[in-house]
Amino acid sequence: MRRQRAVITVFFCLLSVVFISFCFAVVEAVRFSGARAQCANATSLGLWSVFSEYENRLLEDYGLFAVDAAYGEKLISKEKLTDKLRIYVRENENVTAELSGKLPGLLLDPWKAASGDVKVDQYALLSDCGGDYYYQQAVEYMLKTAWADAVGKLKDAYQDAQGMRQVESEYEDSRKTSGEDQKQVAAGVKEAREELTTMTEVAEDGSVSVVKDPEAEKRVRKAEEEGKKKDPRPQLDDLKSGDILKLVCGSIRLSKKKLNSKDLLSKRRANRGVLSLDRPHGGGIDDLLFREYLLDHFRNFKDKPGEDVILYQTEYLIGGKYTDRDNLRKTVRSMLYLREGFNYAFLVTNAARNQEATGLATLIIGWTGRPYLVAAVKHALLLEWAYGESLFDVRILLHGGRVPLKKGETDWHVPLSSLLRLKKQLKKADGVAKGGTTGLDYEDYLRLMLHLTGMANLKKRSLDLVEVNMRTVCGCPEFRADNCVIGMTAKIQWSIPSIMGRVPAALLGTGNPSTDISIEGGFAYR
User: Fold this and answer.
1) Distance between CA 337 and CA 349 in Å, rounded?
2) Fewer Cβ in 10 A, N or C end of the chain?
3) What is the pTM of this model?
4) Rounded CA gap, 130 and 180, in Å?
5) Closest of 447, 454, 453, 448 to residue 167, by C-alpha
6) Per-residue pLDDT tens for 263-309?
7) Beta pairing partners, 495
């Protein structure tokens, strides 16, 4: 029997080493891809877990998602967020291992990935961009919860706002014109008085001299005094210089509550994030929705008293003052100005009212014999009449009544003759309000006032109120809007040990290294 060398056997043995190493390398590559996906999942789960700790009262009361990243303390820091994320990542990382211990032999963790360094890169805060991220969530809340209910109000409010701006522009022009006319009236009265109370005398030598006529002076003085008795303007000037709240509130008991300006977000140096998020909302309709959100979530003068730090919160959005009284006073003045514009527009287009004003102006200054002075005083009387009616209107609103934006003949309450006793006339508004009226109520006018307030101020002041209410009413004494994280990016280092690669490593005599990878992830409330 001839002996042969085992050449092929040795060749296949050597080849099998390469083949087995290749097979295990392929399996290891597949396992590594799965492990990488598992690391990405654990990173995402960690971020989701951090943001699952949103402030529940903020969501319940204001429909806003945010994590109070100060975690009961006063200041926010990346270290606190990092520690929180590290805890959740490791909990998610060890889920399979824990189950394997409870169910031995039934579960296998083929990944064996371990997290290393955890780093929070950037975060965005609720108060960032001048409160615009807060604005985005508020608008989204309205779109998802209140759009159907708000659309009718928004349409009416938008149309009213357009007409309101035009009326106010025309009214402001009229006031400026009247101010200039009154200077001419003063000069014209002086000139007329001189003309009516003096006469010329010719002496025997032919010289001419100007002398006072005592009888004429007496007649002119009497005419002026009679005119002043019928002129309501001085009395209305006195009312304007007094406390407007006494005139329009009557016996209503007013709040004396006030804010501590040092506690307000708008008055301190706020924390800022550096993460930039998408801001899809903005523009006309979104601004209208945001204003409707403010009316829905903040109390006003007509609401029942509560434990809030201030009671007239919508009025704070409009006025920006620190006390309830000051905010109500500023809101009332804004309403008065709005009503004056519409009331004046009614008067100048009503022939009967114009005739009344002309008659009174003639009684006041007709003695001068100058028609242009009568016209100027008539214009001033129409403005004062509009003001007196506006006081009556606002008093009706504050006592629970309604006032139409554009008035008709039957909606007018203050006769021209009553301007001389306007204080007494205003008391009738309480009964008119109780008797029932038509038109817009106090909240409807607040809606219009919000349209006249800049969006930047509304965002800033409403965040002030969110903070204050969360601290006092909601029981979160350390709450700060600039501690509330709404978005975050992070980077986590992962170590993936080699398992299937151990076989080719042993066969080929190489080491058994693990692979380190970096996973970046992010989360933001939408």
Assistant:
1) 19
2) N
3) 0.86
4) 41
5) 448
6) 899 998 999 999 999 999 988 888 989 999 999 999 999 998 888 89
7) 114, 516
